[in-house]
User: What shape does this take?
Amino acid sequence: MSTFEPKIMAFLCNWCSYVAADAAGVSRFTQQANVRVVRVFCSGMVDPSYVVKALASGADGVLVAGCFPGDCHYIAGNIKALRRAPLLGRLLAELGVEKERFRLEWIAASDSGPYARIMNELVDTIRKLGPYKKPRPGVVPLVRSGHAEAGEAVSGGAAGKN
Assistant: This one.
């Protein structure tokens, strides 16, 4: 029996988080090899659809990491990411995604040790959750709807229509 190895997609800010990731590698901090990094100019440019697409494309978890609020090279990009995170969390919950599969973190350029720790913790958390199971096409989980009980799925994408 093979053991599950999660795939994590990490969107890292070019100016802080990506620098920390590079420094963690140069410093030879122990990191699990389950993370695929996408360098973005700012955490604020990570559209929620990128997170949904990563999960739909086979990622078991997604991390968005940026500069600490107040340190953004684009003035308020990380504040934009901070405002989007709760909305994205609710959207993912509506889609049946466990909240532990998405994480927003602030990682400074000098935080190579904390970067490695965060990545290892995320991989371990996702490993315990198991693989992300995409909903079958045409099945929409209803979490807060008057059309079905919480947790029931309705085929055809609309309640009451098949």
Observations:
- Helices lie at 17-26, 48-56, 77-94, 112-129.
- Confidence is low (pLDDT under 50) at residues 143-162.
- Residues 8-131 form a domain with the Rossmann fold fold (CATH 3.40.50.960).
- The longest strand covers residues 8-13.
